Amino acid sequence: MALKLGVNSINKLYLGSTAINKAYLGAGILFYSGLSPDDLFTGNETGVFYDVSYLSTLFQDSAGTTPVTTAGQPVGLMLDNSGNNNHAAQATAAARPTYQTGPARAALDKVDDRLSITVPVGGFTGTMVLATDQGTASYGVNIPAGTYVIGAKGGQYFPGNAIVGQVIRNGALSDGEAAATEAYFAANGATASYGAVTNFSSFWRAWSEITSFPLIDTSAGTIFRLAWYYCTGLTSFPLIDTSAGTDFLAAWYNCSSLTSFPANIFDNVKGGNFTDAFTNTALTQTSIDNVLVSLVTSGIATGTRVFDQSGGSAPSSTGEAAIDTLRSRGWTVTVTGGYSSAPLSSLFAGGQQGLLFKPER
Questions:
Q1: pLDDT of res. 132
Q2: Distance separating alpha carbons of residues 280 and 287, to the nearest angstrom
Q3: Judging by beta carbons within 10 Å of its beta carbon (0-12, 13-18, 19+), is residue 17 exposed, middle or buried?
Q4: Rounded to an integer, what distance in angstroms lies between the CA atom of residue 133 and that of residue 104?
Q5: pTM for the full predicted model
Q6: Do 256 and 177 share a structural domain?
Q7: Shared-domain flag, residues 218 and 176
């Protein structure tokens, strides 16, 4: 596994006072302090490697005739450093990202700015490392042959506001290679962690190529609405920190392959807007139980209290008991199977003491 402290990659390693440049776990790289594009493609793997700090690889036009030389100029062509010549281009002038410095980056207007490449026959099934001005992370991906967007999906949805660098390799990176690539981009100006982001709205919306999602730092996140909307390639999800979260509207909507979801993920959330959060997913019974029990643990009994799930499995008796508790706290809960809560009188079926008032009609 990669060397990390919490969710943050370790960029330097020492033996006493001597810096260690490379460490192995068996035949795999566990830690690597240096990186060049060639290191990731030594086996003639297909893929791409873009680094906006390589000014000589940027051109204002898609034909590559006018170099980018200063901040404020458009980026119409970004050359691939992997040796595969999968250059990223934008023929429409108004949809070109803008080169900026401090750090070097291709800024996106989040309206229509993007570059595109032609993925070769066979596609890319492996790892993508995406470095932005707001965070850097590694993802499992499955990208089919054909046109693929580099930058904001549809020109709008992107985990940041600018590209600092991006690697996609056909063939999975080892944890050490992925960590080294993330550290490389961070050293070139990318933000290493997403820990300062408060609004994750639509960050990965419609990124259907993502097959695995990393355990990034989301501890400051309050808004998660539409964050993974239509991420149809995801089958499982990590135990991210949602403790500051208030709004999860449609966060995993139509993640139609999503079966596995961790326990305790919502134990400390601050708000209860889960409208359409799990609509058209494929959650297992254990996973939907996990979600419902975690919402009970949160203790939320004021403000917006809506939870929706469809597709996948109906909850077990454990999940149904959690629904009863949530509804007693004012939640509107819709789940696969359409569970209707037991009569309120059943709350005292075990001889518990209490009062139940029913107004006359």
A1: 98
A2: 14
A3: exposed
A4: 10
A5: 0.86
A6: no
A7: no
